């Protein structure tokens, strides 16, 4: 019977469902999305519950699944095909978008995933990928990696923070920060998962050896094929070359000089022979937080010349962005909290980005929540 019920739900069904709790203890028994519970058969559901609640809540859960089947599936199909505004992902909470255009002509965004109910950033897990071919219609490509699949990772899971992705010689490399120990703040590693596809089939390949305990990996591949690795934390941004295997540092990592008020979220892109390093700062004034700043250089490893602020704070306690060109237009990707109105349940957005004649970036005005007119 459980198998029959699970087959009713297509694999792309991910409508968010409310949390169910037992009346006696307040214990949470169901929350998240339909997709997260697709694979849960009746035996697994029973194993969550005990005593009288097993019968009562099994009955409730079955009614919930069957009663919302049509709504869940049709809602997911609309998410994948309908034109949306900002935020452009609304069925789960997402943050820290890293945007790339790959050889198939689509733009892909690799964000982190804020898991509700939020507990700071502790529970972040289950990376999804989103793609588009027109910046209007977005497809959820599905989950590509979770903490339980990281063999060297923190036993308690969670803490799957801002990732990035790179492509070289037929392989996609997914870089993600994750602690290796319970003492998460001192055991950060930069993990690597690889695949022959940009949005599926990723397998953990260990982590980059010899790095400090820092976060927010960014990998920039230059026109000559040389890959550069950047990361940061504690007000320090470091960069260096990657070896051809994309999983080892070639030489020494060095501090990126010339940045003003660096906090985290390093991102490097190139335009007209100029390298741009963008990042979030430590701004904290009258309830407004991270601004997005940038610097430029004629070398991918600096030294850098500070250029200014390209985005003011959003309504979120944090911001973390990327900059990418698609079909002749540049875009700034970022996150806000416009769906949840909670700092740690964020949502990814994008807006057009423009340059001045001298190559400096015009300030991007975040559009916030914009409902589609379609």
* Percent in helix: 10-25%
The CATH topology of the largest domain comes to Tachylectin-2, Chain A
- The fraction of residues in strands falls at 35-45%
Under CATH, the homologous superfamily of the largest domain reads Glycosyl hydrolase domain, family 43
Largest sheet: 4 strands, antiparallel
- Per DSSP, the total helix count is 5
- Could you tell me the mean pLDDT? 84
> Which spans of ≥5 residues are poorly predicted at pLDDT below 50?
1-79, 370-374
Global outline: globular
Numbering strands along the chain, what is their spatial order in the largest sheet? 3-4-5-6
Helix/strand structural class: mainly beta
Number of domains: 2
Secondary structure topology:
Layout: H1 2-7, E1 16-21, E2 28-33, H2 34-38, H3 42-48, H4 52-67, H5 69-81, E3 93-101, E4 107-114, E5 127-132, E6 138-145, E7 164-168, E8 171-179, E9 188-195, E10 203-207, E11 215-221, E12 227-233, E13 236-242, E14 249-255, E15 264-271, E16 274-280, E17 292-297, E18 305-311, E19 322-326, E20 329-336, E21 347-353
Antiparallel strand pairs: 1-2, 3-4, 4-5, 5-6, 7-8, 8-9, 9-10, 11-12, 12-13, 13-14, 15-16, 16-17, 17-18, 19-20, 20-21
How would you describe this structure to a colleague?
- The protein is mainly beta and 374 residues long.
- It folds into two domains: 2-75, no CATH class; 94-353, Glycosyl hydrolase domain, family 43 (Tachylectin-2, Chain A), CATH 2.115.10.
- It has five helices and 21 strands.
- Strands 3-4-5-6 form a four-stranded antiparallel sheet.
- Strand 17 and strand 18 form a beta hairpin.
Compact description:
The protein has 374 residues and is mainly beta.
């Amino acid at each position: 019977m459980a198998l029959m019920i699970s087959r009713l739900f297509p694999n792309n069904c991910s409508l968010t469902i409310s949390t169910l709790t037992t009346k006696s203890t307040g214990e949470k028994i169901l929350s998240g999305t339909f997709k997260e519970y697709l694979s849960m058969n009746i035996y697994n559901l029973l194993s969550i519950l005990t005593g009288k609640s097993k019968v009562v809540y099994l009955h409730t859960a079955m009614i919930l699944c069957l009663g919302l089947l049509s709504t869940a599936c049709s809602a997911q199909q609309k998410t994948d095909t309908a034109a949306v505004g900002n935020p452009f992902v609304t069925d789960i909470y997402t943050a820290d978008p890293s945007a790339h255009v790959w050889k198939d002509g689509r733009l892909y965004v690799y964000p982190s995933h804020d898991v509700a109910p939020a507990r700071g950033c502790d529970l972040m897990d289950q990376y999804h990928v989103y793609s588009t071919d027109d910046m209007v219609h977005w497809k959820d490509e599905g989950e590509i990696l979770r903490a339980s699949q990281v063999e060297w990772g923190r036993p308690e899971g969670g803490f799957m923070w801002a990732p990035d992705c790179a492509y070289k010689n037929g392989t996609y490399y997914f870089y993600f920060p994750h602690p290796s120990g319970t003492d998460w703040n001192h055991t950060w590693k930069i993990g690597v998962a690889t695949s022959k596809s940009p949005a599926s089939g990723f397998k953990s390949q260990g982590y980059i050896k010899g790095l400090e305990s820092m976060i927010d990996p960014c990998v920039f591949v230059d026109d000559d094929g040389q890959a550069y690795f950047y990361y940061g934390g504690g007000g320090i941004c470091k960069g260096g070359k990657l070896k051809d295997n994309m999983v080892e540092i070639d030489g020494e990592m060095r501090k990126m000089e010339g940045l003003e008020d660096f906090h985290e979220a390093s991102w490097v892109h190139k335009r007209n022979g100029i390298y741009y390093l963008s990042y979030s700062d430590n701004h904290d004034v009258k309830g407004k937080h991270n601004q997005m700043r940038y610097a430029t250089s004629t070398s991918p490893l600096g030294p850098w010349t500070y250029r200014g602020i390209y985005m003011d704070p959003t309504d979120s306690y944090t911001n973390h962005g990327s900059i990418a060109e698609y079909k002749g237009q540049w875009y700034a990707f970022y996150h806000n909290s416009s769906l949840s109105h909670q700092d740690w349940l964020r949502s990814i957005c994008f807006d057009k980005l423009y340059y001045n004649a001298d190559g400096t970036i015009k300030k991007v005005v975040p559009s916030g929540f914009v409902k589609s007119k379609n």
